[in-house]
Amino acid sequence: MTDPKxxxxxSSASAGEECRGQVLVSGSxxxxxxxxxAAKWGIRGVVLNDAGVGKDDAGINGLPYLDTxxxxxxxxxxxxxxxxxxxxxxxxxxxxHVNRTAAxxxxxxxxxxxxxxxxxxxxxxxxATPPPISGGKRYTVLERPGEPKVICLDAAPMLEAxxxxxxxxxxxxxxMFRGKPDGxxxxxxxxxxxxxxxxxxxxxxxxxxxxxxxxxMIAGTAAAASAPIGNARAIYADxxxxxxxxxxxxxxxxxxxxxxxxxxxxxxxxxxxx
Length: 274
Description:
By secondary structure, this protein is α/β, with parallel strands linked by helices. The chain folds into 2 domains: 6-120, no CATH class; 138-272, no CATH class. It contains 9 helices and 11 strands. The protein has helices at residues 32-39, 62-67, 86-92, 100-103, 113-120, 208-213, 232-238, 246-250, 259-272; strands spanning 6-9, 23-29, 45-49, 73-76, 95-98, 138-142, 150-153, 167-173, 191-195, 218-222, 241-244. The strands form 2 sheets. Strands 6-7-8-9-10-11 form a 6-stranded mixed beta sheet. The chain has a 5-stranded mixed beta sheet with strand order 1-2-3-4-5, with helices on both faces. It is elongated. The termini are far apart.
């Protein structure tokens, strides 16, 4: 058997059969949804991004979840490296949180991500099936005559071509994979919202907003402290606008406004044609 390796993935959802028996460094936030995507492949350990931790510890709640199958897990501090860029995390990240299983291997807060991931190479391969999760779903929350439909998607990759013309609230961060255009927001939406993932180093967590201005698409983020990352319905109901692009500003967005209230402004404008 060949020695285990450290593999990098911009998103846990992009991991595949090739990562079986290896250690993953993932650019995804450290919630249960991404922890599940990593753990299902039978790996030795995973390092995710803490996304500023945020409300209800949503950016790190995948760590105790993975303790249930004794899979070592840690998060990198979003202020030390770029979320959605696992190579940058491995090169520059500092560990912010570890679970009990990782701590038993010698992983600890303050280590570099590389040091932590290398310690995980000594862990056994965990083939136990991870527990079911409640996230990763999509919902229609508003559908009124004469207005765009409002949908909530716990993960932005769940967008479909048929979602064109809607207002989408996602549970995802607003980073771009590896910091480059990635085609993730393919449909032409009226508007789209994300978590700011604590913004992070170099503004990585909100970088997609300016890119969507190039398409004239209204886009904004909710403060991670105001609503749990990964929970699109909570971001819609409770999220507070923290950042937005020029198109959103022109449409009336203001820092501190509730996401839901700004969406009502957009719906009113669509209904009245103003």
